[in-house]
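DM between two lab members

TW: hey, do you still have the Phosphoribosylformylglycinamidine cyclo-ligase entry open?
JB: yeah, one sec
JB: this one, 358 aa:
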Amino acid sequence: MSQEKKYISYAESGVNIDANDQMVDRISSSVKSTFGPRVMDLKNGFAGLFSLDSDSKLFKKNYDHPVLVACTDGVGTKILIAQQMKKFDTVGIDLVAMSVNDMLVQGADPLFFLDYLAVNKLDPENVAVMVESIAEGCRQANCSLIGGETAEMPDIYGQDEFDMAGFAVGVVEKDRIITGEKVRQGDIIIGLGSNGVHSNGFSLARTICFKQQKLNVTDKIDSLNGRAIGDALLDPTKIYVRPVVKLLEDFADTRPVHGMAHITGGGLVGNIPRVLPSDCDASIDKNAWQVPPIFDYLAQAGPVEESEMFRVFNMGIGFTLIVDPAHADAVMQNLSESGENVYRIGEIVGGSGKVILK
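TW: and the structure you got?
JB:
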């Protein structure tokens, strides 16, 4: 007598196609909320379509020699705190910010964004929250979320584990690409305030908070106005696209911005040199802005030497602009009127391509 065959399903292997379908339905409105007139909404398409038609009705501005600019990045170990907090409504903003702020350095205007999300088990509700936060980041950056991928991989990721990556494409007029080659002695360095730790240095921050201090993510810290340490660390990366793009448009005739830097891993001392000529240094006044409390806490709880803090973290400055001194005050006023916390943090002096903290 033959035994009846027992069939195995994809779901029994750990991948739920039905959950994926539910997730797609839930995120549809979030994704479409980022669409502008250049997005070609192809239902059930296998790829996103974005029109480069130069029709003035579609583009806010036309380009004579458009250059596409592309960036990719992740969020790093910050996602482990989101995982512990079960709080997924900010990491998507981080994901978008890390790419669009990078392309902004070259003067590029973001066009569209793609995301990749890998999970242990697809929870439609949690994934929908993550994608909505990505969409929120895109709205802040004035770009469209035109595609993405969610992969359920139980044999690679442990229970509740996930990772995410993002890919952005922008555009800049060829003769308006900002490279730093125009930076010269006497230029003024302007800093834009950060929103906290942003998305870099979390391996050190987590070691201090959760291994050395043995905190729980929900523990409240007096010096952080009684906030839970997890909430303070999860403050999303600030997106600088709208104010800086507006600035570049407002000063299109004089072009006073000679160089810019997104202050990510490496801090001020590691990122500003990327746009310095070999015969120039950036002299930074550490007292020109108030360092946010989260950095004071990390430095004291570590303890961490000041030089290491400035080498790892943004220390309260998330983006810098190096500008012609004749236009520095006007540039600062423009950025301030856009709602930014603006600081005059230093100047360009003769040297060998490094940052000097004073």
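TW: got it. Residues 11-175 form a domain with the 60s Ribosomal Protein L30; Chain: A; fold (CATH 3.30.1330.10). DSSP finds eleven helices and 14 strands in the chain.
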